[in-house]
Every structure is written in C-alpha cells, then in structure tokens.
Specification:
The structure is a single chain. This protein is an alpha+beta fold. Helix content is 30%, strand content 29%. It has 4 helices and 8 strands; from the N terminus they run αββαβαβββββα. The strands form 2 sheets. The protein has a 5-stranded antiparallel beta sheet with strand order 7-6-5-4-8. A 3-stranded mixed beta sheet has the order 1-2-3. A hairpin with a 2-residue loop joins strand 4 and strand 5.
C-alpha cells in the first residue's frame, strides 16, 4: 500500500534496481531517498540523493550513508564495472519527487515535464500556486497565444520536476534549514523561523 508521502517520481531500469537496494538502508538509518541516478560522467558515477524527513542533511550524514550503502551494493552488484559512489543532498534547486515537496515549496518556481500531454504540452515552468491531494495548479511564467494563465497538473502525470533557483527560494531554503537544525538540537519539531532572524548558524 502506498504511504502518504511515498515518492511519486521513481527511477526506471538500472536506477530502479539500485534504488530498491539502497532505499531500505537509507530508511533504516532515519533518512529518506530523494533520487538515484547512474551517469557516465568521470567513468561511471552513481549519485544517491538523500535527506532527513525535515529536509536537512550534513556532510557527515552523507559520509555515514555512503559507508552503509556501499556494502549493500557490493552484495547485489547491480552495476557492471567500476563506478564512483556519490551521496549528496538534493540541493536548493532540488528534484521534486514527493507530494510534500510541492506543498513545502508552494509559491516557488518549478520546471517540469509530464509523461502525457497536459493542456496540449509536456514541458512547463511556473509558480506552484495551489497544491491538492491529486495535483497542483501552476501559474505559467510565460504564456503562448491562447494559453490560460494557470494549468492544473495531476501528480501522476509528472515525469520530472525541479525547483528553479531564485533569490526567494535561496532565502526560504536557508530559513527552513536553519529552523530544522535548531529544532533538531532542541529535540523538538521544526518550527518556521521567524522573519528577520539573522542569527548565523551553520
């Protein structure tokens, strides 16, 4: 049965096989998988993106996950030949893979592709205006003749989506990250950092 916040965008082919191996390890350590991608850069690079449920991850977390993932991959050996394992954070201009990603970053600009035609096209860019259980409304940033200013996109149509880096996104991402880290230190739940909080904490 699908959990409320399972990933709606998943890997295919070899990436899916790798995800099936590493996800239980990642979840068992209290993190969640964002994306797995095997690419041909610098020989072969296996990129595993992960984060804590509150959206944070440290360099130390990445190293710890890398040490735990490597033996699991060695046992199943899904990749032919040598590869470089890279465990990283999703970054500020993150891939959007869960429903909660869209609600967490409502009001920000996203670029996406759909697997099927939606309103006559497959590529979109705009601001996430409204998020519902089944999809979201996008305010288009550029309109062609005859386009409506908004388009409703169902979650099950989305093939690929990521946030676009803007000043607003950087500001909000830093604020959320700081609030989550502060809350984790206190052992409480992440609260929204008050606006104008200029306390510099890394």
């Amino acid at each position: 049965m699908e959990k409320a916040d399972d990933r709606i965008i998943r890997e295919t082919g070899i990436d899916a096989r790798i995800a099936a191996i590493v996800e239980p390890v990642i979840v068992g350590m209290g993190f969640r998988l964002v994306r797995v991608r095997l690419s041909g850069q610098n020989g072969l690079t296996l990129q595993v993106m992960a984060e804590r449920p509150d959206g944070t991850i440290t360099v130390e977390d990445c190293e710890e996950l890398s040490r735990a993932i490597s033996p699991a991959l060695d046992v199943d050996d899904p990749v032919d030949g040598a590869y470089h394992l890279e465990v990283s954070s999703p970054g500020i201009d993150r891939p959007m893979v869960r429903r909660s990603d869209f609600s967490d970053w409502q009001g920000h600009v996203v670029k996406l592709e759909t697997a099927i035609l939606v309103d006559g096209r497959k590529r979109f860019k705009g601001k996430i205006a409204v998020v519902s259980e089944d999809g979201f409304t996008l305010e288009r940033d550029q309109m062609s003749y005859g386009d409506e200013p908004t388009v409703d996109i169902p979650f099950d149509a989305v093939a690929d989506a990521r946030l676009i880096l803007t000043d607003d996104l950087i500001r909000d991402a830093l604020k959320k990250d700081k609030a989550a880290r502060k809350a984790r230190k206190k052992g409480g739940k992440a609260q929204e950092a008050p606006a104008g909080d200029s306390d510099n904490e890394d």
